[in-house]
Specification:
heterodimer; A: alpha+beta; Alpha-Beta Plaits; 4 strands; about 25% strand; elongated; B: about 190 residues; alpha+beta; 2 domains
Chain lengths: ~220, ~190
């Protein structure tokens, strides 16, 4: 081989470096970070577990104390409940009597009040006051029908009396609507009086019925 | 390098991290497994606490209840004594006739209606469970003042009475110069069941 034709070798040499065997030269070593995270997480889980166990133990103790407290007070409580039951049972009698006697109009009071507002020039021939059950929505409720008939010396007196009934306290009751209808017969030619009839309804509920008016 | 060799190498390299991982797994499993028990205890504690509060409230509510109950029982006994007995028809009717002289009215007729007043009957709007009612239709004659007094007296007498219907008209003697009114009264009396 001539000198000119000298074989040129590439700059090559085998790399014998084993990275696993080399020391970790990072500022914070990987092993330290992994261990730190693992230890922190283990501590957190352990603390959490201990805390829950402690809580369960405390709850169990509280429950035991409460059960003991309940067991001690049970006799007194049963006695109290029995008393309360008896009280309710007895009270039902009184409630029923109240339900029986509870009415918005006492007839004697009604007639006394009516006689006080009656004008002198108005005569009553007949008065009636009666309870009637009205259907309001789905409920049946107590109402009243009142009828007054008689003679009026003149129509002004009758109008005044009707207005007094409409605006006065006697028939304007809470929870009732008032309907007054008036029927007049012909004037008596001899006496000059007007026979009249007032039909009054006290209907449970606040809505006023339509068709209110005279004859 | 085989996988097992790699694993062995990691185990050897991070023994602390591996131990911690095992602790984390066991701890998390324990927390998960026992979470139900803790919830159960919390619910039980709330229930018991509520029960104790109710018992304490019962003690407060029952304060003086025995005395009130005794008073109420005496009152109810007195009320029960005022009820009409449906079977004692003559005594019941005579009760109204006894008012006649005292109140200066003339009782023309008293009629005991067999049926209960619909308002208080079963399925009525004010159905009574512990009592019943007896209806009487009474015809009477008297002056307006006496009739109103009669009505007033009915609210003051021992039996529990309520007037449900009344109709007053001028009596026949009015035409002859008298001052009487004819009245038809329907009333109900609270009676024993």
């Amino acid at each position: 081989m001539s000198r000119g034709k000298k074989e040129i070798q590439p700059h090559w040499r085998p790399n014998f470096v084993d990275p696993a065997e080399l020391p970790d030269i990072k500022v914070i070593r990987t092993g330290f970070i992994i261990n730190f995270i693992a230890v922190t997480l283990a501590l957190v889980v352990t603390f959490w577990l201990i805390q829950r166990e402690y809580q369960a133990r405390a709850l169990s103790q509280t429950i035991a104390t409460m059960e003991q407290q309940i067991a001690l007070a049970k006799a007194v409580d049963s006695e109290n409940l029995a008393l309360s039951r008896d009280f309710r049972k007895v009270a039902e009698h009184i409630i029923e009597v109240g339900k029986f006697l509870e009415v918005p109009i006492e007839p004697h009071d009604f007639f006394v009040s009516l006689s006080k507002i009656k004008p002198d020039d108005l005569l009553f021939r007949s008065i009636s006051l009666g309870e009637e059950v009205f259907k309001v929505g789905n409920k049946n409720q107590l109402g009243y029908r009142i009828s007054i008939s008689g003679d009026a010396k003149n129509l002004t007196v009758l109008d005044d009396f009707k207005n007094t009934l409409e605006s006065g306290e006697l028939l304007n009751l809470d929870g009732f609507s008032l309907d007054i209808r008036e029927a007049l017969q012909g004037r008596d030619a001899e006496t000059g009086i007007f026979p009249y009839q007032l039909s009054i309804q006290l209907i449970p509920g606040d809505k006023k019925p339509e068709g209110k008016g005279g004859a | 390098m085989s996988a097992s060799a790699k694993l062995v190498r990691i185990l050897r390299e991070y023994p602390i991290a591996i131990s911690c991982a095992l602790i984390i797994i066991v701890g998390a499993a324990s927390i998960f497994m026992r979470s139900g028990r803790n919830m159960e205890l919390e619910v039980k504690e709330t229930d018991l606490s509520l029960r104790i509060r109710t018992m304490d409230q019962n003690v407060i509510n029952a304060n003086g209840l025995k005395t009130d109950l005794e008073a109420m029982e005496a009152h109810v006994e007195q009320l029960e004594g005022r009820l009409f007995d449906r079977d004692q028809r003559a005594i019941n009717i005579n009760f109204f006739y006894d008012l006649e002289d005292r109140l200066d009215v003339r009782l023309l007729n008293i009629n005991q209606v067999p049926a209960e007043y619909p308002l208080y009957a079963a399925k009525g709007p004010r159905a009574l469970k512990l009592h019943s009612t007896i209806t009487y239709n009474i015809s009477l004659n008297g002056s307006f003042q006496r009739i109103v007094e009669f009505l007033n007296e009915l609210t003051r007498v021992e039996p529990l009475i309520r007037v449900t219907d009344i109709n007053m008209t001028r009596g026949d003697d009015r035409a002859a110069g008298g001052g009487g009114l004819d009245a038809r009264i329907s009333l109900i009396v609270l009676a024993e069941k």
